[in-house]
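One-letter codes give the sequence; the fold follows as tokens. An example follows:
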Amino acid sequence: KDTRSYTEAIIAKALDIPLEIVKDNLELMSPRINANINNQYSMVDALYENKTSIINIEVNYKNTINGRNRGVKYVCNLLLKQMKVNNKEYKLKPVYQININNYDIFTAGRFIYKSYLMEEKIHKRRDNSICIVDINMAILSKMNYTDIMKGDKGSLEWLLYALVCKNNKELNELYIGDKIMDKVRKKILDLTE
């Protein structure tokens, strides 16, 4: 709860939506998703829901086939969970999965990737039911501190830099006077100790 504003800001920036859409209306859900008997006790890292969408945040350290399959399984389970038996008029909330990866999933040297269900030749989206956002923290950890300082305060890079930078002096300069980032940095320090 003490870093809720930070989570809301990351979600808004990662999904490229106005903060007002997620501000103060996200409900933290149980991380257990069991839409299929074959996937008993599947647990996501963080799961949020509001009136318009479902948002799953995953932190991935290694780029493995099993890990990528697990992420797809989570998205599919979150869609299936919304489909009730004998309800022919259900409306699916879109499922957004934000992967904070310690690697470059597509090896294209980009910081952020967005994937949708899309037609191959004309690149037209089938619908908006699924969006997977992959954030490349490996590229962020190689970024120069001065580039982060020169960039936009509140950008996704600025928000996430606290997770990869180990230099307290740089972090103090970067986040000076920012109450939310002070809480985030304290939380990170508590968790790492």
About this structure: The first helix runs from residue 4 to 15.
